[in-house]
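Let us practice reading a record.
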Amino acid sequence: MFLVGEIIHNPHVNKKLQAMGVEFLHRPDDGEFDFSGITPADVVILPAFGVTVKDFERLRAVGCVLVDTTCGSVLNVWKRVDAYAKDGFTAVIHGKYHHEETKATSSQVTKYPAGRFLVVRDMDDAREVCRYVEGAGSGDRFVERFAGKMSPGFDPDRDLVRVGVANQTTMLSGESLAIAAEIRRSMVKRYGDDALPITSARSTRSARLPRTVRTPC
């Protein structure tokens, strides 16, 4: 029985699982999980943070038994990010780019040829995005700052016009909401009040403004 990463970030729980004979699989820095030792007879547990689309497909190709413990709140974020990519919005994800959950969430956009994502760690990162939206940023500086934290081929001139905000569910929800509000203000400043979304009981839509999801886990 294998576990991809850690079931949750709780040393006590993870030690108990190891004592029960569960073998932990760890992703090397800037590398991929090694699934070469897994056979169709093995059981592989997917953690609460989820796994990337690519890792899921790799495991499914092996034919092993998959036990999916992905948190429901994480799945809700995935649905929102999927909708962003499908509708032509860039997913701006408040999270830690190296965290397994954020890796899994950002991978959801890769299912679409034009899917785009950008990971912001904190308000400082968000304000750099806002400066660019408002026309005061440098493209070279932007790409350098967010290297490794955005989808391949990311073009801030193209990909920061239509955005949707999501979060890593273990981040502070208040900070995620503040970041969304900051980006929203910059969109209004750049494009004017006419860009405000039309709100109904069923949905909130906008040509440019971020749509925000709050899903604490």
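A brief commentary: The longest strand covers residues 90-94.
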